[in-house]
Design goal:
Elements lengths: L2 H11 L14 H8 L22 H12 L2 H7 L9 E9 L2 E13 L7 H7 L4 E4 L2 E7 L2 H6 L12 E11 L3 E13 L3 E8 L12 E8 L4 E4 L3 E2 L3 E9 L6 E12 L1 H4 L9 H21 L1
Antiparallel strand pairs: 1-2, 2-12, 3-4, 4-5, 5-6, 6-7, 6-8, 7-11, 8-9, 8-10, 11-12
């Protein structure tokens, strides 16, 4: 089933189809994330639609973001052109069987020209890169055509329209948990916005170098300092990011992110340890992004 067919089926089967701009309606993962509960097959959560839509005038945008910020003064701070400008982060949890779904909603502003941003090119910048914050490490590797064929997936066709790629994320959490997931990512772009949506692909639940799984890490003097538990299956997560041009703030882009992941009970026995790290990670990554965009503007 091709991408367009999947998109049509998702819209038809949804009881309340999401409102999506024409350019983003071909982004099959975006429609899936907006239309279906996470995780599937049980009680889960559903993401809200983006606050901003293409075609809104300055007043409509300002009103929508004032609801997020809480006041005109807070909105003024949110759109300030500074590396240290504030961001808005809201977290929530949902139980799903024995696991907890950790979800985060994030809004912040950066300064750049949207026409200069390309989803696939931006993804390639992170290929092989490692990020560290809050005693957690993450490394992303983009899968090549041979990796996909080995997993029984046809490499995405290089055609006009949404960009499709697969990224494997390897992470270590607080020196207690190690995990790996392979996400299918689809990026779409209009003249006013960019959407990047991701989901952990169940095609990689089977054994292989890019398998979805997790294992515990424990201190062990007899094993060079650490020992690893058996690899367990892992459902991973879903997310979408929409980057929109702000009509009322020239040169500014609103970045709106919604993400959720499964946290098995065995990780931290339900304690909100990871949730407490969200703000630290957000601040570090947002400031890094703002510095990078400022560096590019200065060239």
């Amino acid at each position: 089933m091709n991408t367009i067919t999947c998109t049509i089926m998702l819209v038809i089967c949804s009881a309340d189809p999401p409102r999506v701009e024409l350019e983003h309606a071909k982004n099959s993962v975006y429609l899936e994330v907006l239309s279906q509960d996470f995780p599937r097959g049980g009680q889960g959560l559903r993401f809200p639609e983006p606050r901003l839509r293409d075609g809104q005038d300055a007043d409509a945008q300002r009103t929508a973001l004032r609801e997020v910020a809480g006041s005109d003064q807070a909105l003024g701070e949110l759109v300030r052109n500074s590396v240290t400008a504030p961001y808005i982060l809201k977290v929530r949890d949902t139980r799903a069987g024995d696991a907890t779904i950790r979800a985060a909603d994030l809004w912040f502003v950066v300064y750049a020209e949207i026409a200069q941003l390309d989803p696939a090119r931006e993804a390639a910048r992170f290929d092989g890169k490692e990020a560290e914050a809050g005693n957690m490490k993450f490394q992303t590797r983009l899968l090549k055509a041979g990796d996909l064929r080995a997993a029984g997936i046809a490499p995405p066709a290089q055609t006009p329209g949404p960009h499709v790629w697969y990224g494997h994320i390897h992470g270590r959490l607080l020196d207690r948990i190690e995990f790996g997931v392979t996400n299918q990512v689809v990026g779409s772009q209009s003249s006013e916005s960019i959407v990047i949506a991701a989901r952990t692909d169940p095609a990689f639940d089977k054994a292989g170098p890019h398998r979805n799984g997790w294992r515990s890490i424990a201190a062990s003097a007899s094993a060079g300092g650490q020992s690893q538990g058996a690899l367990q299956p892992y459902a991973g997560g879903v997310s979408y990011t929409k980057i929109s041009r702000l009509a009322f703030q020239p040169g500014a882009l609103l970045v709106e992110m919604h993400g959720a992941f499964v946290e098995p009970q065995e990780w931290f026995q339900g304690a909100p340890i990871l949730r407490s790290k969200f703000s630290v990670i957000a601040q570090d990554q947002i400031r890094t992004l703002r510095r990078e965009l400022a560096r590019r503007r200065g060239k």
